[in-house]
Amino acid sequence: MTNIAMFLFLGAAVVVVFAFCSIVVWVSVPLRERQARERLALLQALAENPGENALRVLEFLREEDARRAANRARQDRRSWIAGGLIMMAVGAGLGGMLFEIGDRGDWAVGLIPFLIGCVLVPLGALIKPGVRPVESK
Fold first, then answer.
1. How many angstroms separate the Cα of 85 from the Cα of each of 40, 58, 82, 107, 132?
2. Which residues contact 73 (CB under 8 A, 6 or more apart)?
Protein backbone atom coordinates (compact mmCIF):
# COMPACT_ATOMS: atom_id res chain seq x y z
CA MET A 1 0.00 0.00 0.00
CA THR A 2 2.85 2.38 0.77
CA ASN A 3 4.38 1.70 -2.67
CA ILE A 4 1.16 2.80 -4.38
CA ALA A 5 0.97 5.94 -2.26
CA MET A 6 4.62 6.78 -2.99
CA PHE A 7 4.05 6.19 -6.71
CA LEU A 8 1.01 8.48 -6.74
CA PHE A 9 2.84 11.17 -4.77
CA LEU A 10 5.85 11.12 -7.09
CA GLY A 11 3.61 11.05 -10.17
CA ALA A 12 1.67 14.07 -8.93
CA ALA A 13 4.91 15.89 -8.10
CA VAL A 14 6.23 15.33 -11.63
CA VAL A 15 2.98 16.60 -13.16
CA VAL A 16 3.04 19.71 -10.95
CA VAL A 17 6.68 20.51 -11.80
CA PHE A 18 6.12 20.22 -15.54
CA ALA A 19 2.88 22.20 -15.34
CA PHE A 20 4.72 24.98 -13.50
CA CYS A 21 7.50 24.99 -16.10
CA SER A 22 5.00 25.24 -18.95
CA ILE A 23 3.23 28.16 -17.24
CA VAL A 24 6.55 29.99 -16.76
CA VAL A 25 7.35 29.59 -20.46
CA TRP A 26 3.81 30.57 -21.47
CA VAL A 27 4.07 33.79 -19.44
CA SER A 28 7.62 34.79 -20.47
CA VAL A 29 7.33 34.29 -24.24
CA PRO A 30 4.99 37.27 -24.90
CA LEU A 31 7.34 39.56 -22.96
CA ARG A 32 10.32 38.61 -25.13
CA GLU A 33 8.18 38.88 -28.25
CA ARG A 34 7.04 42.40 -27.29
CA GLN A 35 10.63 43.48 -26.59
CA ALA A 36 11.76 42.18 -29.98
CA ARG A 37 8.86 43.95 -31.70
CA GLU A 38 9.71 47.25 -29.98
CA ARG A 39 13.39 46.91 -30.89
CA LEU A 40 12.48 46.25 -34.52
CA ALA A 41 10.21 49.32 -34.56
CA LEU A 42 13.06 51.41 -33.15
CA LEU A 43 15.49 50.14 -35.79
CA GLN A 44 12.95 50.86 -38.55
CA ALA A 45 12.50 54.40 -37.25
CA LEU A 46 16.27 54.88 -37.18
CA ALA A 47 16.57 53.61 -40.77
CA GLU A 48 13.90 56.04 -41.92
CA ASN A 49 15.47 59.03 -40.12
CA PRO A 50 19.26 58.73 -40.33
CA GLY A 51 21.34 61.31 -38.56
CA GLU A 52 23.60 61.97 -35.63
CA ASN A 53 20.98 60.93 -33.07
CA ALA A 54 20.42 57.69 -34.96
CA LEU A 55 24.14 56.90 -34.69
CA ARG A 56 24.04 57.54 -30.94
CA VAL A 57 21.06 55.24 -30.49
CA LEU A 58 22.71 52.50 -32.59
CA GLU A 59 25.89 52.80 -30.52
CA PHE A 60 23.82 52.52 -27.34
CA LEU A 61 22.09 49.40 -28.71
CA ARG A 62 25.47 47.85 -29.59
CA GLU A 63 26.78 48.55 -26.09
CA GLU A 64 23.63 47.08 -24.58
CA ASP A 65 24.03 43.92 -26.70
CA ALA A 66 27.68 43.61 -25.68
CA ARG A 67 26.77 44.08 -22.00
CA ARG A 68 24.02 41.46 -22.30
CA ALA A 69 26.42 38.99 -23.97
CA ALA A 70 29.03 39.53 -21.24
CA ASN A 71 26.43 38.97 -18.52
CA ARG A 72 25.26 35.80 -20.26
CA ALA A 73 28.85 34.53 -20.48
CA ARG A 74 29.43 35.23 -16.76
CA GLN A 75 26.19 33.44 -15.92
CA ASP A 76 27.23 30.45 -18.04
CA ARG A 77 30.53 30.27 -16.17
CA ARG A 78 28.77 30.41 -12.78
CA SER A 79 26.33 27.72 -13.94
CA TRP A 80 29.12 25.33 -14.87
CA ILE A 81 30.85 25.81 -11.52
CA ALA A 82 27.59 25.54 -9.54
CA GLY A 83 26.59 22.41 -11.46
CA GLY A 84 29.96 20.84 -10.71
CA LEU A 85 29.70 21.62 -7.01
CA ILE A 86 26.17 20.20 -6.89
CA MET A 87 27.33 17.02 -8.64
CA MET A 88 30.18 16.67 -6.16
CA ALA A 89 27.78 17.07 -3.24
CA VAL A 90 25.37 14.53 -4.73
CA GLY A 91 28.21 12.07 -5.30
CA ALA A 92 29.53 12.50 -1.75
CA GLY A 93 26.05 12.11 -0.28
CA LEU A 94 25.27 9.05 -2.40
CA GLY A 95 28.61 7.48 -1.55
CA GLY A 96 28.12 8.13 2.17
CA MET A 97 24.60 6.72 2.12
CA LEU A 98 25.67 3.60 0.24
CA PHE A 99 28.63 3.15 2.57
CA GLU A 100 26.24 3.06 5.55
CA ILE A 101 23.53 0.83 4.09
CA GLY A 102 25.36 -1.16 1.41
CA ASP A 103 27.68 -4.11 1.22
CA ARG A 104 31.34 -4.20 0.23
CA GLY A 105 32.07 -1.52 -2.39
CA ASP A 106 28.62 -0.12 -3.05
CA TRP A 107 29.84 3.30 -1.96
CA ALA A 108 31.94 3.51 -5.15
CA VAL A 109 28.77 4.29 -7.14
CA GLY A 110 28.92 7.74 -5.55
CA LEU A 111 32.26 8.32 -7.27
CA ILE A 112 30.52 8.65 -10.66
CA PRO A 113 28.67 11.92 -9.99
CA PHE A 114 31.52 13.12 -7.74
CA LEU A 115 34.09 12.74 -10.53
CA ILE A 116 31.74 14.36 -13.05
CA GLY A 117 31.55 17.32 -10.69
CA CYS A 118 35.33 17.32 -10.40
CA VAL A 119 35.49 17.78 -14.18
CA LEU A 120 32.75 20.44 -14.40
CA VAL A 121 34.27 22.81 -11.82
CA PRO A 122 37.64 23.28 -13.60
CA LEU A 123 35.88 23.51 -16.97
CA GLY A 124 33.71 26.31 -15.62
CA ALA A 125 36.77 28.04 -14.20
CA LEU A 126 38.53 27.85 -17.58
CA ILE A 127 35.67 29.54 -19.47
CA LYS A 128 36.67 33.11 -20.20
CA PRO A 129 33.86 35.47 -19.15
CA GLY A 130 34.30 37.85 -22.09
CA VAL A 131 34.41 35.19 -24.82
CA ARG A 132 31.28 33.49 -26.02
CA PRO A 133 31.27 30.91 -28.83
CA VAL A 134 29.35 31.81 -31.99
CA GLU A 135 25.89 30.29 -31.93
CA SER A 136 24.33 29.03 -35.15
CA LYS A 137 20.64 29.64 -35.66
1. 41, 41, 5, 19, 22
2. 127, 128, 129, 130, 131, 132
Looking at residue 131, what is its pLDDT?
54
Decide: residue 95, CB within 10 A, 0-12 exposed, 13-18 middle, 19+ buried: buried
CB 61 within 8 Å of CB 124: no
Q: What is the CA angle 97-99-105, rounded to 5? A: 135
Give the residue extent of every domain in the chain. 1-49, 65-132
- Read off the amino acid at residue 93: G
What are the DSSP calls for 86-100, one per residue? HHHHHHHHHHHHHHH
pLDDT one-digit tens code per residue, 70-120: 888 889 889 999 999 999 999 999 999 888 887 888 888 889 999 999 999
pTM, to two decimals: 0.58
